[in-house]
Amino acid sequence: MKSASILYLGVTFGLFAVFAVIVFRTYSRKRKEKLEEPKQRMLEDD
Amino acid sequence: MEKAEYNYDIVRSFVNWSILWGLVAVLVGVLIAFQLVNPDLNFAPFLTYGRLRPLHTNAGIFGWGIGTFFALFYYMVQRLCRRPLWSDGLAKFQLWFFNATIIAAAVTLLLGYNSSKEYHELEWPVDIMVVILWVIFSVNITMTIVKRKEEPMYISLWYMLATLVGVAVLYLVNAAAVPVSLFKSYSAFAGTNDANVQWWFGHNAVAMVLTTPPLAVFYYFLPKSTGVPIYSHRLSIIAFWSLIFMYLWTGAHHLLWTPVPDWIQTLAMAFSVMLIAPSWGSVFNGYLSMKGQWHQMRDNYLVKFLILGITFYGLQTLQGPSQAVRSFSAFIHYSEWVPGHVHMGAMGWVSLVLFAAIYYLVPKIYDRKLYSIGLANLHFWLVLIGQLINSLSMWVAGLQQASMWHSLNPDGSLTYTFMETLAEIYPYWFVRALSGIIYLAGVVVFIYNLYMTVRRGKEVPVAAAQTT
């Protein structure tokens, strides 16, 4: 396998890993309140 | 923070100008629809179909679409960040530079200067104006967000930032060209590479101009209109990131069955189908936000526009990926089916959401009650019926056209000549042109209602007008 192909494969897996981290952090129970807060705040009179 | 510190002058100005360009886009659209029915309506050389068609798309996408997004982004960013704009002066300069750019675009297109790249027709001097305009806008919005007084970032701000970055990257790469005179340049890319870059740009213009900004607007104006929060902010974040990860790979689905390498076509096809997930993440979020609020579809004219808008987004993001599948694309590509698809997105999804946002905004930024809810409802039905007739007539035309193109005699020869297939399309083109008149009537009602709101609408106290 060419080094360029290995690099592309690495980038692909890297992007999947980044996305998995985003999903995990977004749906972490500890962060639920913090991440749902903006939807209430935007409705408050500013 | 006193509400009076927010800069609504710039919002008002962008709303006014973008509506003007929107009217131009629809008027030219109706004219070119009739030109297809009756070629005698082509007045050479400036008012021929070939020159007016890019004017129609540029006025629609850049004048109406982006002009309104300028207004709405400036409104939303101040309120979501709870601070005034970073620079009022820059915003004012941007307003006038925006109009100068649109006028330069219109004049050069009518004079026949055209790079021949769809949705990126403007020649290099006007390209430079677009880049300056976008840099000014991006700096102002980004700095307002960086210096915000509200720490948590609502999802609309994420979509706004994605728009700024996405458009900048796409436009700069696709604009790479070698000028050979004041109004003529040649693409820096050649052959299939040029086609690939062009459609990477072309389809992602749909992403970064006609998807992320209206989603920012939808996520802001739906809860503001209903008075209840969106169903899930976390779902909106996941839908956002998955859309960002996937969208930029889909452009080559415009080049299925061409000399572009097969693996690129397959990649684009796969990502296009996967894109259904994030798109419908936002659609479900919108529908679930209406839980217990569906009565507002009867009582609240804004909700009608917004929910029909997100419904068309949902349909668009099912139809789009279907068209990106090789076998289906082989049948409908290059037929009238495609304009039907595009106009469901432009006249349905994007414009319905923008109409709602402007109806919400104008009474607030002018401290007036809307002149007539009845006229707003009339506007809704006219544009909905106009859009449905437009898309349906083109889908039926496309199916007939594609069937005739693919029809073979027992000996393998074509059953129909091209001219025979063309002659069959005329009745559909006529229906499409009539649908444009219905849509135009809706837009005229919209403008009249807003004009009367500003001129004769009942004044309401500033505080009342500026609450949710």
Indicate the CATH class of the largest domain in chain B: Mainly Alpha
Distance between the termini of chain B: 16 Å
Give the proportion of residues in helices of chain A. over 70%
Order of strands across the main sheet of chain B: 1-2
- Fraction of residues in β-strands of chain A: under 5%
Task: Kindly report the CATH topology of the largest domain in chain B.
Answer: Cytochrome C Oxidase, Chain A
Which runs of chain A of at least 5 residues are low in confidence (pLDDT < 50)?
none
The chain-level structural class of chain B is mainly alpha
State the separation between the terminal residues of chain A, measured CA to CA.
58 Å
Topology:
The complex is a heterodimer of chains A (46) and B (468).
Chain A: H1 3-26, H2 32-41
Chain B: H1 9-37, H2 49-81, H3 88-110, H4 124-146, H5 155-175, E1 177-181, E2 184-187, H6 191-210, H7 212-226, H8 233-247, H9 262-274, H10 276-288, H11 296-299, H12 301-323, H13 326-332, H14 337-365, H15 373-406, H16 418-456, H17 462-466
Account of the 3D structure:
The complex is a heterodimer of chains A (46) and B (468). With 46 residues, chain A is mainly alpha-helical. Chain A is 74% helix and 0% strand. The radius of gyration of chain A is 18 Å and the shape is elongated. The termini of chain A are far apart. The mean pLDDT of chain B is 95. The longest helix of chain B is centred in the C-terminal third of the chain and has 39 residues, at 418-456. Chain B has 468 residues and is mostly helical. Chain B contains 17 helices and two strands. Chain B folds into two domains: 1-188, Up-down Bundle (Cytochrome C Oxidase, Chain A), CATH 1.20.210; 233-468, Cytochrome c oxidase-like, subunit I domain (Cytochrome C Oxidase, Chain A, Up-down Bundle). The radius of gyration of chain B is 22 Å and the shape is globular. Chains A and B meet through helix 1 and helix 2 of A and helix 7 and helix 8 of B.
